[in-house]
Design brief:
The chain is of the alpha/beta class and 323 residues long. It folds into two domains: 2-175, Peroxisomal Thiolase, Chain A, domain 1 (3-Layer(aba) Sandwich); 177-322, Peroxisomal Thiolase, Chain A, domain 1 (3-Layer(aba) Sandwich), CATH 3.40.47.10. It has ten helices and 13 strands. A five-stranded mixed sheet has the order 1-7-6-4-5, sandwiched between helices. It has a four-stranded mixed sheet with strand order 8-13-12-11, sandwiched between helices. A hairpin with a 3-residue loop joins β12 and β13 (315-322). The two termini are 18 Å apart. It binds acetyl coenzyme *A (ACO).
């Protein structure tokens, strides 16, 4: 029996920081409104010419170093993104090439803000089946390129960034019995397609389009599904919420996270929060938060970590990890 273990974390944030006050100089908004409704104070924005593959590569290199793994060891790259460099080929193949990897398989996964959980589930299943040994699982986005900067209801919510993790297949017996990715659960329901979407694409307008959102509906479903799917994961493993050391939810909005904590009866201190400094970086939020909590020493060996996300589609899911 094989099980995947997360052995390294890495992240990359573009240099340019844009505060709420900076935005208020260009659009009709205020620091107070944004903070109160979302908890966001600032976001990182990619430089002109800085691509999803560039920031993904930076995060990947950091994760490889953190894991002490050579690029030659990677035989699977799964990149979660809704903002690929080009319509095709997969941005993961460019990351593969930039890292000098000529073997294995590299592909993208598209589940918007749930993308990292989908990518993790995909990589975990492949490792458990023995189809690969060492995987690079990345969430990377440049949402700044698909925002309508005249729509104050959406453009203030997002940022750019990338997070990466290294997974390695290990024997699930002996010391490893209780360690690694314990479970993943992923779901989608396309009846909600129009709640959160981009109004362009190759087969519709032929342009990239801009993000459109029914904010209140997204909020409601995010709280409901992201809580529900943590309960599903815990029940599947015969564990209780009290045993969770850290909840790392998709970082869309601090109020969504507070509501989830309340529903789950989880102390707020057990939630890793980055949305205040990074805003919503879609598929990148969870691996960015994992990398931050790993590097500042919050994540420790033996910790039980729950991941939970919802994005366009709607698509949602959870993962339970034992470090
Ligand atoms: N600055 C100032 N005023 C604003 C802004 C802004 N940036 N945006 C909207 N407003 C105004 C509106 O025009 C409206 O004014 P009105 O009352 O005069 O008409 C007022 O604020 C209230 O607008 P609502 O849209 O009703 O505000 P709401 O309380 O729903 O908050 C928000 C909006 C923050 C988007 C909220 O619905 C939300 O967080 N939803 C979740 C969406 C989300 O996080 N999506 C991310 C992608 S999905 C995911 O990651 C899970």
């Amino acid at each position: 029996m094989l099980r995947s273990q997360i052995i390294g974390f890495g992240s990359y944030l573009p240099k340019d920081v844009v505060t709420n006050d900076d935005l208020a100089k260009k659009i009709d908004t205020s620091d107070e409104w944004i903070r109160k409704r979302t908890g966001i104070a600032q976001r990182h924005i990619a430089a002109d010419g800085e691509l999803t593959s560039d920031i993904a590569e930076q995060a990947a290199r950091a994760a490889l170093e953190n894991a002490g793994v050579a690029t030659d060891d990677i035989d699977l790259i799964v990149l979660a993104t809704a903002t690929p460099d080009n319509t095709f080929p997969a941005t993961a193949t460019r990351v593969q090439s930039n890292l000098g990897i000529r073997r294995g398989v590299a592909f993208d996964v598209q589940a918007v803000c749930a993308g990292y959980v989908y990518a993790l589930a995909t990589a975990d299943n492949m490792l458990r089946l023995g189809q690969a040994e060492t995987a690079l699982v990345i969430g990377a986005e440049v949402f700044s390129r698909i925002l309508d900067w005249d729509d104050r209801g959406t453009c203030v919510l997002f940022g750019d960034g990338a997070g990466a993790t290294i997974l390695r297949a290990a024997d699930a017996a002996g010391n490893n019995q209780d360690r690694g990715v314990l479970s993943t659960h992923i779901y989608s329901d396309g009846a909600y397609y129009d709640m959160l979407y981009v109004d362009g694409g190759p087969s519709t307008t032929g342009t990239s389009g801009h993000l459109r959102m029914e904010g209140k509906e997204v909020f409601r479903h995010a709280v409901h599904r992201m809580s529900e799917v943590v309960v599903t994961a815990l029940e599947h493993n015969g564990l209780s919420i009290d045993e969770v050391d850290w909840l790392i939810p998709h970082q869309a909005n601090k109020r969504i996270m507070d509501s989830i904590a309340k529903r789950l009866s989880l102390p707020e201190e057990k939630i890793v929060v980055t949305v205040d400094r990074q805003a919503n970086t879609s598929a990148a939020t969870i691996p960015l938060a994992l990398a931050e909590a790993a590097s500042d020493g919050r994540l420790r060996e033996g910790n039980l970590i729950a991941l939970s996300a919802l994005g366009g589609g709607f698509s949602w899911g959870s993962a339970l990890l034992r470090l």
